[in-house]
Amino acid sequence: MKTVNDVKLKKPTKDESGEAKEFANQYLKNVTENQIKVMCPKCNMKTTIYPEHIGRSSCEKCNVLLKKVEDNKTNGEELKKGDRVRFRRVVDPDDDKIIMVLLEDPDGGRVLVESLIWDSLNPTRVLPTSELIKVSKPRPDRT
Hints:
Structural class: alpha+beta
Shape: elongated
Number of helices: 1
Strand content: 15-25%
Number of strands: 10
Low-confidence stretches: none
Largest sheet: 5 strands, antiparallel
Order of helices and strands: HEEEEEEEEEE
């Protein structure tokens, strides 16, 4: 009877190890390409999940269902420098009255905006593009 010490392990040949590496690389490529970007609508935490998990995955902190994110797009429209936008979701009572203009093209799901409050000093800030909706024309009460 053979013991463990009697059995010699065979080293993989170059061809076998190359095939394994190629298989692993292809697998990782498929995993990363098939995932979609999602975000928690409450805390803005972003991550990626598989498409089959949409509608079932929730944020660990907020226990809210994750929503799909479309980078640099709102309602299917591409955002670009100079566009007028407003908040997608009203949190404070005056949020629906704030109109902002994009000071730069979106990058990585975020963009620098300037709030148009018609004062001598308009505040600027960086906001996620998923929180913004493009405004087609200025509000009638603002000229």
